[in-house]
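Changelog entry: the COMM domain containing 2 record was regenerated in this release. Current contents:
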Amino acid sequence: MLLDLSEEHKEHLAFLPKVDGAVVAEFGRIAVEFLRRGSNPKIYEGAARKLSVSSDTVQHGVEGLIYLLTESSKLMISELDFQDSVFVLGFPEELNKLLLQLYLDNRKEIRTILSELAPDLPSYHSLEWRLDVQLASRSLRQQIKPSVTIKLHLNQNGDHNTQVLQTDPATLLHLVQQLEQALEEMKTNHCRRVVRNIK
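Regenerated structure tokens:
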């Protein structure tokens, strides 16, 4: 699977052949550090002074490198696919090898960082439900008032918690229809691509 880089990302990466290999390696270190701790404008300014370019140029170069490494790591592309993806950029062979080495050295760490950044959402464990129907009251002798009580058991970080919900059948039917519609939408090509890129 080849990476599909936009023109904007290609422009950001176009700065890399203009600098030395050691600078590209340093940019790779900065990129991984950025993923760990977030952006630090002082690093961009210091590198820009040393290279006699604007800090925006350095920032765009590092961000382009971050995108290249994170997307490659997310998709777990092979060495050959990574080389083919970078080859399209028209970089010298030495720079392509350096980028490949950066990718191979850091892909496990990048995947670990990305998995830590993902939200830890509760997952379904079990469900209990009960249908109650009020047939009459003191003031109204003939009334039918149904209600559905749902006890939802969830798991999150090894802990079990319970949510109790109560609704009328019409609202429950609407909820079921919306969930079925969402499941159908998950089968579309667009959603499959998005889910594949998230993993």
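DSSP finds eight helices and three strands in the chain.
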